């Protein structure tokens, strides 16, 4: 389940041993003095979903009243209301967009109204043929409800866009000075996006014109309070600013990852602000993560008990065939850029620490013993990672962890690679069950890993574990 094969490191040779832009996150609460005093926390203004629900409800009731269906079929009107609201909720049409526009959602709203009317008309014709709706009534109902609903939604969205222009959310831009100033200038030129940058957060001060540059935690804290900052635009890999982003999120700021270089079209889960492709970040602990952790502890603990005899046999056989040093330890990067020590059975021996850290895999793999080949072919060398899962360094399911050097290289080369560290790394994942192991596309892994995180559910984890188990059984010929 690792990305290891005998090939040179991608991207050429390292400039120097140990190069990695990935931050090592210090303990919580020790973030360079960056803390918020009690009573000074900001409150992010969020658009309510109630006006849109009310508009759809009014549209259903008004349509039923206008067509005279309220008296003939009172339950039909109730079903219209519930059907429209239910379908729109499932389609996330009550989750406000950063810059709402009725034309963007018009096809989805009208399509769900038509589906609701046709479904109810079919049920009514089947249950009570005498009271079936005529084709004229059906067409009129779809058209009238769509018109009223879209007109109401347009009014709600217009008021919200006007409020964004009159009272924009103040924001900080985090990233390299030149890129951050460029992104901030673009947002200032487009006030309709409702975000007004007031400062740049970067490591090194930069001269020239532009917004004030903040380089210390105290400056960030002061700017946050004085300007009532409620949004943060991140133009660098989020893993490089884990502690600061977590503190800002807990203070009530909305975090946006801004892709300052790539085009914004055809990117699932992304919004467009000031012409940039933006994705909302979540660095605060998710409610579902408790269930994920319980699953990890239960499954890894049970498996460790069941396979402990097998682990002992593998360790003894490996000691006899390859000598001392049965356990292989290597630094990997986990959630939020935190390093941890990954455990495996040793199936090969690097020439030195430099090769182990900066080569995609170790040379002379063909010289491994038959038993080591067996361990790797059956993935039995990965079993020790159950200890990583049990102690909380990893999860059963998640993006595969990589060495610091390659995290740095891949984060610079492949868009979305750094975003994989939003969630705990895992033994297996969505990319692995789709064949992305060994010497396969890093870009494809990014896409699958981020899709897994964006659509995470406990059931998805269970399905991935079952498919992984089935693949392991097939690989052993059972």
Provide a quick synopsis of the model.
By secondary structure, this protein is an alpha/beta fold. Helix content is 48%, strand content 11%. It is found in: Membrane.
Could you walk me through the main structural features you see in this protein, from its secondary elements to its overall organization?
There is one protein chain. This protein is of the alpha/beta class and 478 residues long. Among the domains are: 50-165, no CATH class; 292-475, no CATH class. It is 48% helix and 11% strand. The protein contains 16 helices and eleven strands. It has helices at residues 50-66, 69-72, 74-90, 102-127, 135-166, 177-189, 217-226, 242-250, 288-322, 353-358, 370-377, 385-391, 404-413, 430-433, 442-454, 458-475; strands spanning 169-174, 195-201, 213-214, 231-234, 254-259, 271-273, 276-281, 327-333, 339-345, 395-397, 426-428. The longest helix has 35 residues, at 288-322. This is Exopolysaccharide biosynthesis polyprenyl glycosylphosphotransferase. Belongs to the bacterial sugar transferase family. Keywords: Membrane, Transferase, Transmembrane, Transmembrane helix.
